[in-house]
From TrEMBL:
Its main location: membrane. The chain crosses the membrane at residues 44-63, 170-187, 207-228, 235-252. It comes from Lentinula lateritia. It comes from the Eukaryota. The lineage of its organism: Eukaryota, Fungi, Dikarya, Basidiomycota, Agaricomycotina. PANTHER family: CHLOROPHYLL SYNTHASE (PTHR42723), CHLOROPHYLL SYNTHASE, CHLOROPLASTIC (PTHR42723:SF1). This is UbiA prenyltransferase family-domain-containing protein. The keyword Cytoplasm does not apply. InterPro entries: Prenyltransferase_related, UbiA_prenyltransferase, UbiA_sf. The keyword DNA repair does not apply.
Amino acid sequence: MLKSNCTTWDFLVTLQLFNQSDMKTIVFPVVKLIRMPLASHHTVSQFFLAVFWIWMHLLYFTVTNQTFGTSPEEDAVNKPNRPIPAKRISVDSAIILRWVLVPVNLALSLYAGAVPSGMTICVLTSIYCSGGGHSHWLSKNGCCAGFYALFEYGATQIADSSEKLNRNQLGAIIGSALIIITTIHAQDFRDDEGDALLGRRTFTLSFPVFSRITMPILLSVWSIALCLLSEANQFVMLVLVALGAVTGIRFLTLKSAKDDRLSYLYYNVDMALNGSCCFQLVES
């Protein structure tokens, strides 16, 4: 249960804590894209509706993920600030919240005009959590790319008030998904110890040396390719290439969990810039 003296503010803080660690991975990069002309006709109200849609569907995923299997016990050790290990909410109450979010999000998607994306996020969440998608690097990376594409597709559709996205918008989303599926193992380095104890077969555990070698190569290649093909200004290009190289080299040379957490923060900034260049690419 929630704390007996829980206020509305406490409850909202609890909800945000479910989403907090994924804000930089999903919410901020996607919001940056829909703020740009990727959703070229949006109004202020449409923009905030899209942001709220992202946040609510992310909440469904994070609540499901943090209540599934041994996640509560794992978070008690690795991420004690999350709502369940922090005793802000019980596992049973969080499970009830998870099921309440299903019809709430369906109604929200129906109102916003993004039902296919919303329903597919629910299905992909089940595949990731209860279907074992999180346990092997191939399915995990594929699911992560799928989540990113679905959030981006649905939010762009809402912000642009369009039933069907155009070729340029789809191209930007596909480009972002390709970058994610080839580099998202950046998030696994920081959790290697815990993942090993749980028997997960992440890319970083399956290929500990090769996975680190890929980071400077892939991040640099993506950054250079996007800069060469897009119409982003020279300063953005320079920052993108430099950040990709620095982030990749950090992953290769600095291998403590603390260093990997900071490198992952750099990675998320790099992904936001890459997403911006994806849009410039398809518009050029």
